[in-house]
UniProtKB/TrEMBL annotation:
Organism of origin: Arthrobacter stackebrandtii
Region (Disordered): 385-410
Keyword Membrane found: yes
The UniProt record lists the keyword Transmembrane helix: yes
Protein name: DHA1 family inner membrane transport protein
Pfam families referenced in this protein's UniProt entry, alphabetically: MFS_1
Segments crossing the lipid bilayer: 45-66, 73-92, 98-119, 131-151, 163-183, 204-229, 241-260, 272-290, 296-314, 335-356, 362-383
């Protein structure tokens, strides 16, 4: 059995900490809102503000560090992550908490974007995709175990204790990066690297793929951002049951990650169309099941499974059209995930503030999912029209995800 490089494990720990920072706030919104004497929609800005900072940081930070060694950049980003979470842990007011979230978020997009390329270079050529999945597994494990445990810890010892724990995770990840990630370049770096990376964005398919990511991921989090008040006020669950419902959602994410990797190995565009359509159906059903504890549990699992199953395909599709210079495209698509998160959280909070009820963000998510389906259908149709035709006069088959990934990281 091939031994997993310790540097890859360090990347996974970093991914775990970052995923925990992003999502644990969802289960602690009522406690944070009460502590700072703000409304739930205002507390929700801690989610959308984080996501917007990721969206900006993923592009700006990745571009600004294009000529630097990946290990140097990743270590600096983890220091930023530690500082941001430390600020959140000691914040005495809402503004300081918000600032800490923004600081921590600046590392998110660039860490996953650069880390994905670096991870692929830590293993043999026939194990690159699996190496990348290991790093992203840290994100799913954060949702399966970290978020529920972090929510429970915050409810028992105060929400600040959760951010102290995340800060410690950051220190462990930093130590692992310093000790085990090699300092060699992941690719040819230098002054001309940024120009090569920007060249990937001349492809219309890259932009369409990014838009699919924005609306597809925004659909899931448009509904999920306000899940804690939904479960307590609409489903009638006690606050301490929220953590266990997040375990169910996290199990869905973990399952979806496995399913998504397998389905993307087939017809990539078809799998995304099916999954995004299924997401629309699940969200529509959630508007009814959110009033039942058992119904909410089942639908939350399906929401996590279907929503996250589309993620590997979304990332692979972007990289497949930017394979000559994937680092910036990878970072931008990570930003796109979080831009969708921000849009979903903002629109969901707006509908609640407008008096449309706590279930209204679910309808926002469904509308975003329909938009993602339309964009994916358009991208697929344009791709087929522009493809060379085979001997029978029909378009050639869209390349499988495995080949696209190989091209992206070769």
């Amino acid at each position: 059995m091939t031994r997993m490089p310790l540097g890859l494990l360090a990347l996974a720990v970093g991914g775990f900490g970052i995923g925990l920072t992003e999502f644990v706030i969802l289960g602690l919104l009522p406690e944070v809102a009460a502590d700072f004497a703000v409304s739930i929609p205002v507390a929700g800005h801690l989610v959308s503000g984080y996501a917007l900072s990721v969206a900006v940081g993923g592009v700006v930070v990745t571009a600004a560090t294009a000529a630097l060694r990946p290990k140097t950049v990743l270590c600096a980003l983890m220091v930023l992550f530690i500082v941001g979470n430390l600020l959140s842990a000691v914040s005495g007011d809402y503004a300081t908490m918000f600032f800490g979230r923004v600081v921590a978020a600046l590392c998110h997009g660039a860490f996953f974007g650069i880390g994905a390329v670096l991870a692929s270079n830590l293993v043999a050529s026939d194990r690159k995709a699996r190496a990348i999945s290991v790093m992203f597994a840290g994100l799913t494990i954060a949702n399966v175990l970290g978020v529920p445990l972090g929510t429970f810890l915050g409810q028992q010892l105060g929400w600040r204790s959760t951010f102290w724990a995340i800060t410690i995770v950051g220190v462990i990840a930093l130590a692992g990066l310093i000790a085990y990630v090699p300092a060699k370049d992941a690719a040819e770096r230098g002054p001309g690297q940024l120009r090569r990376e920007l060249g990937a964005f001349t492809s219309g398919q890259v932009w369409l793929s990014i838009l699919v990511t924005v609306f597809g991921f925004g659909a899931m989090f448009g509904a999920f951002t306000y899940i804690a008040p939904m479960l307590t006020s609409l489903a009638g669950l006690p606050p301490d049951a929220v953590a266990w419902m997040l375990v169910i959602f996290g199990a869905g994410l973990f399952t979806g990650n496995i399913i998504g990797g397998k389905t993307a190995d087939g017809n990539l565009d078809k799998s995304l169309l099916v999954l995004l359509s299924a997401l629309t159906i699940v969200l529509s059903a959630f508007t009814l099941t959110v009033h039942s504890p058992a119904g909410s549990a089942v639908t939350l699992f399906l929401l996590g499974a279907v929503g996250f199953a589309a993620v590997p395909g979304m990332q692979t599709r972007v990289l497949s059209f930017a394979h000559k210079a994937p680092t910036l495209a990878s970072g931008v698509n990570i930003s796109a995930f979080n831009l969708g998160n921000a849009i979903g959280a903002y629109l969901g909070g707006t509908t609640i503030a407008a008096g449309l009820g706590l279930a209204s963000p679910i309808w926002v998510g469904a509308a975003l999912a329909v938009t993602a389906v339309a964009l994916m259908g358009t991208a697929s149709l344009l791709l087929r029209r522009n493809q060379p035709t085979g001997p029978s006069g029909t378009p050639e088959t869209v390349p499988h995800a495995t080949e696209l990934t190989r091209k992206a990281y070769s």
